[in-house]
Amino acid sequence: MFDKILIANRGEIALRILRAAKELGISTVAVYSTADKEAMHVKLADESVCIGPPPARESYLNIPALMAACEITGADAVHPGYGFLSENARFAEILTEHGLVFIGPKAEHIRLMGDKIEAKRTATRLGIPCVPGSEGAVSDETEALRIARDIGYPVLVKAAAGGGGRGMKVARTEADLIDAIATAKTEAKAAFGDDAVYLEKYLQKPRHIEIQVLGDGKGRAIHLGERDCSLQRRHQKVWEESPSPALNPAERDAIGGIVSRAMADLGYIGVGTIEFLYENGQFYFIEMNTRIQVEHPVTEMVTGIDLVNEQIKIAAGSPLSIAQDDVRFDGVAIECRVNAEHPRTFMPSPGRISSFHPPGGLGVRVDSAAYQGYVIPPYYDSLVGKLIVHGRSRTEALMRLRRSLDEFVVDGVETTLPLFRALVRNSEIQDGAYDIHWLENFLKDAPTE
Ligand code: ADP
To answer: Whose CA is nearest to atom 21 of ligand 1?
Structure first.
């Protein structure tokens, strides 16, 4: 097992990793930018190293500074969390070249899944169902028009190097498609330095359902069920739950089996998430995330399995501690991502938190690095904390969520808490009757405050 882990991240996920490391008896090193010197992860870690000024590219994305921090502290492994360098294959390689362990998958798998076209090809090869679309990048308009005619409109133009919901354009007609290809290429080039785009059939009312997997890199892999992340705003997840209100146990076993067999064949190591769109009983692969995800706690709450603990142990060379047959799905968990943003316009609202009172009680978990007096810096994401509730049934989880949201106090900045208070009282949400467009429509119809 490792003696010391450097956590190459900030905020709630840095704390989450720190907690898992402490429970394993491993020392922790926090890194921070000058904007984060008062941050909770710095206060709670055994050691800390300043790695640069506020802009992420000069601190949390600064590989030489992180390598120096490893060297100074004698860390033997690095946990990248999510975002920042978590899906940077080169960073994983550099660590390995220096005799350090990257707590994540092999660099080749990060690279493979980071290229969405390669990822789809691999998924198809491994027997995972994909959204119908172009086989690879589309080279010109004529080819795009031909493919779109085959798969049928509307179609979605996506950037091969895309991420975070950026670089996607819907085309409903041939004229639309010509425009969409041109703008998607220009935008992709500017945002990702790569103008390759591909086509997919645009699904009209799908749900976003993703499967959590764990692999040991030696041919064994298990799945931990699904998370339904259909409630999205601008393709960003807002509310996640497990199990999905739309799936039955047979469907879960079937898709879980396909995915875990595929990951075993790939020799995948660590935690990963295979994302699907789900419509009319069919699953369509969209991408794989080769890291721990923001919404991982809902899976932990229903399975009782600590994903970060597993991730660290697997990276240290241990076999999987659980077999598929030992995985039990118990009750329902729901997560709300509480952001420091205006609840309707979603304008970021950085600043000083004048009072902070998170909810508690049975089945309530708050993953947050905020505290009273903490100043949310304007440089990074606006997550204040994740509220996760667990109940024996979905009704119990919803009642618990409602009272927890009413109890949650965050003053001094705007937050999205009022939005969640409205969602938990909405009858369609209560019925679990929502698809990936539901939230955008709800926001359009709702009066702005
Ligand atoms: P990113 O890597 O940018 O997050 P994804 O491929 O994961 O991109 O897609 C993000 C979201 O975009 C999905 O959760 C879904 O809401 C929407 N989306 C992606 N592909 C399609 C599609 N073929 N049809 C309809 N919606 C889609």
So the answer is: 202
| CB-ligand 1 contact for 436 (6 Å cutoff) | yes
From the list 25, 12, 96, 46, the residue with the least C-alpha distance to 313 is 25
**pTM greater than the 0.70 cutoff:** yes
Apex 144 CA angle, 140 and 147, nearest 5: 145
Q: How far is the CA of 286 from the centre of ligand 1 (A)?
A: 7
Q: For 391-437, what is each residue's pLDDT tens digit? A: 999 999 999 999 999 999 999 999 999 999 999 999 999 999 999 99
Q: Token pair for residue 40? A: 């909770």
DSSP class of residue 432 equals T
d(CA 422, CA 179): 38
Pick the catalytic residue from 291, 337, 365, 394: 291
Nearest one of 45, 10, 14 to 29, comparing CA atoms: 45
State in Å: Cα 73 to ligand 1 middle. 40
The residue behind tokens 């949650």 is: 408
CB of 232 within 6 A of ligand 1: the answer is yes
SS3 content of the chain, % helix, strand, coil (to 5): 35, 25, 35
Q: For a substitution probing ligand 1, which of 194, 226, 236, 277 has the most ligand atoms within 8 Å of its CB?
A: 277
User: Contact at 8 Å (CB) between 226 and 237?
Assistant: no
